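pls design
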């Protein structure tokens, strides 16, 4: 098994049994003596031992928001489900389909500028085959937003047809925007209304309550807080959410997430051609990845392995486009 590393204090190490599992998928890390040798001369070296799981899951305010969200679904006509285009599967809430039921649903794949064209084509085909209407958006720049608006109006048209048959006047289509934290829900709403109607920042957990926003005489949007599952779905999914800044930073250790990112990029580059340019990454850091574990790679390329330097590695990915990666 390809064991991995962790940079921790002796106190943290002593809290765990030496018989615990190790490996890139279970969330524990072990330092290997040969890596300490490779990192000779550095200001800080990793210590041997095992540590806590990679991601801690603390939904916080999510429980109340989830209950309120399910209640409000009864008064909306269309659901706009937002996902992070870089990790579409990991940002698909496992209960959305059950919650939405037969209501029309439109999927907005946000941050589309950060995903390879090949991946977008594959995902659009896959989701369309499952009966979903998919749109690629860049909410920060407004790309794809007009098309998404038209799709939401079309999806809600049946509601006004029913009202007309009952002798009622038409009303605005009511849409709910839902998705994981920090996938761009509030930024999308602000683009739709051309003003700062919903609080939007590039960090998870900014929207804390449900709020209606009038887009025009034709459409109203319900902005919701980021919803993550009450139970941790898997360490792999949680790690991908952390890499893309779609869960709060307090939930994880930046050193472990940076190491996971390195291994994930290498894995994707070997499995799917055209998704990741590993040669570009190796050229940037001046070190060939080879068969090293992600933690080993960090020890070699970073002058000092710590929380701040590891966070910089993750942030560079979060801010990158495929051309940069």
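designed seq:
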């Amino acid at each position: 098994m390809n064991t991995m590393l962790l940079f921790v204090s002796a106190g943290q190490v002593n809290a765990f049994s030496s018989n615990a599992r190790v490996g890139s998928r279970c969330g524990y890390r072990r330092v290997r003596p040969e890596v300490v040798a490779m990192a000779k001369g550095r200001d800080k070296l990793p210590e041997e031992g095992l540590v806590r799981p990679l991601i801690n899951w603390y939904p916080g305010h999510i429980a109340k928001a989830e209950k309120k969200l399910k209640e409000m679904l009864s008064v909306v006509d269309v659901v706009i489900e937002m996902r992070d285009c870089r990790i579409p599967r990991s940002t698909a809430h496992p209960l959305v389909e059950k919650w939405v039921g037969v209501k029309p649903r439109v999927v907005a794949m946000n941050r589309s500028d950060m995903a390879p064209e090949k991946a977008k084509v594959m995902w659009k085909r896959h989701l369309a085959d499952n009966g979903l209407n998919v749109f690629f958006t860049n909410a920060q720049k407004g790309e794809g937003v007009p098309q998404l608006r038209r799709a939401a109006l079309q999806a809600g048209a049946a509601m006004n047809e029913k009202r007309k048959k009952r002798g009622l006047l038409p009303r605005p289509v009511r849409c709910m925007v839902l998705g994981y934290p920090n996938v761009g829900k509030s930024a999308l709403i602000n683009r739709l209304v051309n003003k700062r109607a919903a609080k939007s920042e590039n960090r998870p957990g900014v929207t804390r309550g449900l709020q209606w926003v009038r887009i025009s005489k034709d459409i109203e949007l319900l902005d919701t807080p980021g919803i993550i599952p009450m139970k941790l779905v898997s360490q792999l999914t949680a790690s991908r959410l952390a890499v893309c800044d779609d869960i709060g930073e307090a939930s994880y250790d930046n050193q472990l997430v940076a190491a996971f990112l390195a291994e994930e990029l290498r894995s994707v580059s070997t499995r799917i051609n055209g998704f990741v340019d590993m040669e570009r990454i190796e050229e940037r850091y001046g070190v060939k990845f080879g068969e090293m574990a992600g933690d080993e790679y960090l020890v070699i390329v970073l002058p000092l392995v710590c929380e701040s330097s590891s966070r910089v590695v993750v942030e560079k990915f979060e801010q990158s486009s495929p051309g940069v990666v």
